Amino acid sequence: EKKSLTSNIKALTIWKLSGLLVNNTDNIIITYFNGLATVGLSSNYTLLSNTLNTLLNQIFNGIGASVGNYNAVESRDKKIELFNFINLINFWLFGWATLGIVVLSSDIVEICFGKNYVLPFSIPCIVGLNFYMIGMQSAVWTYKNSMGLFRQGRYLLIVTAILNLVLSLALGKLWGLFGILFATTISRLLTNTWYDPYVVYKYGLEEDPKQYFKKYINLFLLLIITILGTLFLCSFINM
User: Fold this and answer.
1) What is the tens place of the pLDDT at every residue in 113-125?
2) How far from chain centre, in Å, is Cα 78?
3) Which of 48, 120, 213, 238 is the most exposed place for a label (fewest CB within 10 A)?
4) What is the dihedral of CA 135, 137, 142, 145, to 10 degrees?
């Protein structure tokens, strides 16, 4: 038990430290390519997304112990049923918030700080995409943590951090702020966005991971259609 506990704590520590590297290198690279003023402009958008992320994640942090207890006593079918339910709630909450970021964040920045601080529409789109990708992992991470699946993929976020750094330097030179933020999207998509659900389904739920990815794509397409429909309706509103 001591050996298993020590191994899991080491894996969790590596995972947490790697997460800090992934989430905190963008501002340094933005400063390098675009200057400190651009960091200030982009932080108006990331502040909104980070606040929403912190707020919504309190829900999943609060149910972690209950999910762990449920997984310890219930059958595999019951575990899968609960995961699907939590994943749907996950999509509803973070999909709704993503919609708000894409459609309304520029308006919020304009009202709070003025027109000079508003960035091109591509920036709230990529900020919203990054927010959604991280947010949709909440149900997966709740199950992964409650099942003690720390050792699987413990070095993966280090790969994410390296990819993020290399791609940010390359794409930042090409597309500036958008390229740096888009590099984060690509690095996450190539690593933990697919691997963490794979681990939960393969080793935790003992189910075919293809079911999750099929549902993930369908929900993402639904979100895109909803955002496009909302943007179309909002185009009739003149403020």
Assistant:
1) 899 999 999 999 9
2) 26
3) 238
4) -130
Sole residue written with tokens 């700080």: 113
* Structure-token pair, residue 20: 């800090």
Rounded Cα–Cα distance for residues 199 and 144 (Å): 8
Q: What is the dihedral of CA 51, 148, 152, 185, to 10 degrees?
A: -10
**Residue stretches of the chain with pLDDT short of 70:** 23
Question: Which of 226, 129, 106, 116 minimizes the C-alpha distance to 182?
Answer: 129
Cβ neighbours around 234 below 10 Å, total: 12
Which residue in the block uniquely carries the two structure tokens 């919609």? 99
Q: Mind giving me the DSSP string for 36-100?
A: HHHHHHHHHHHHHHHHHHHHHHHHHHHHHHHHHHHHHHS-HHHHHHHHHHHHHHHHHHHHHHHHH
Closest Cα to residue 223, out of 69, 88, 54?
Answer: 88
Dmax (CA) for the chain in angstroms is 64
The pTM for the full model equals 0.90
- Rounded Cα gap, residues 225 and 117, in angstroms: 28
Residue type, 139: A
Nearest to 230 by CA among 124, 134, 136: 124
Position 104 scores a pLDDT of 94
SS3 165: helix
d(C-alpha 106, C-alpha 234), whole Å: 13
CA distance 102 to 81: 31
Is there a contact between 224 and 103 (Cβ–Cβ < 8 Å)? no
